[in-house]
From TrEMBL:
It is an enzyme of class 2 (transferase). Keywords: Methyltransferase, Transferase. This is Class I SAM-dependent methyltransferase. It comes from the Bacteria. The keyword Transmembrane does not apply.
Length: 278
């Protein structure tokens, strides 16, 4: 029987940095401002209903966990960052929903083999630095015949472009780390899950964002609230490249604006994949 992997000391240091990055800024505000539609879309696609045992990996504030619980599932929301789980608990209390909140690393999940009927992640597990261990863990804790459901930003979409824009300003990635938007590629998912998960749907969708009047307002929101942008911008400042970074981010938002200069509209592409565990 497979058991929960034990992280190496160097890995613990890396995860401490990631935990701090996601705790910086105000990610819960980003969720409330424009990310809320994603969780229910994943829950519907996964066919989650009453009686399902569901694990949400890298659940953040529970954007998919809460609608799964509202559908009658027994939900465990797991995340590396306790501050995000605390925000999720407050949301659950406000909505009178009962679910379990567990601090956990996506690459070393503290759950038994085959414990869940559905293992899902909405723009969460994709940000674990090492993709293969995360995929392996999702498979391990899902029962045979259970479902794996993923919603991930695509490499070709706006968030993929954001990470390409930030890359020249960021410190070197840790050994073995892969770009997060690769999870939004069907070919990459096939490599990660091999023959262990048979994906029967892989649909591209778009999150339309109209919450920011001007492109620069969206850039400012990322600078103030989004951990990866905050971390990369701090590194750019330390290298004397702050103005260059800010200009590159403004240019990105202008390029991806599908509205007007005073009524901005953005389309953020994602891949929604659902498969059956062999």
């Amino acid at each position: 029987m497979s058991t929960t992997p034990v992280p190496e000391p160097s890995d613990l240091d890396l995860k401490k940095k990631h935990r701090g990055m996601w705790a910086s800024g105000d990610y819960p505000t980003m969720v409330e401002r424009f990310l809320l539609p994603l969780g229910p879309r994943l829950v519907r696609a996964a066919g989650i209903g009453a009686g399902d045992r569901v694990l949400d990996v890298a659940a953040g504030t529970g954007n998919a966990s809460l609608p799964a619980a509202a559908a009658g599932a027994a939900v465990t929301a797991s995340d590396l960052t306790p501050e995000l789980l605390d925000a999720g608990r407050r949301r659950a209390e406000a909505e009178n929903l009962d679910l379990e909140w567990v601090e956990a690393d996506a690459e070393h999940l503290p759950f038994g083999q085959g414990s869940y009927d559905v293992v899902m992640s909405s723009i969460g597990v994709m940000f674990a630095p090492h993709h293969q261990p995360s995929a392996d863990e999702m498979v391990r804790v899902c029962r045979p015949g259970g479902r794996i459901a993923l919603l991930s930003w695509t490499p070709e979409g706006m968030v993929g472009a954001l990470f390409r824009t930030m890359k020249p300003f960021a410190p070197a990635p840790p050994p073995g780390a892969q770009p997060a938007p690769l999870w939004g590629s069907a070919d990459h998912l096939a490599e990660l899950f091999g023959g262990r998960v048979q994906f029967h749907s892989a649909d591209h969708g778009v999150l339309e964002v109209t919450a920011f009047p001007r492109p620069g307002d969206f850039a400012a929101h990322f600078i103030a609230s989004y951990g990866p942008t905050i971390s990369t911008r701090a590194h750019a400042r330390s290298q004397g490249r702050l103005d260059e970074f800010d200009s590159a981010l403004d240019d990105l938002m202008t390029t991806w604006n599908r509205g007007t200069a005073d009524a901005a509209r953005f389309e953020m592409e994602y891949l929604l994949s659902v498969g059956t565990r062999s």
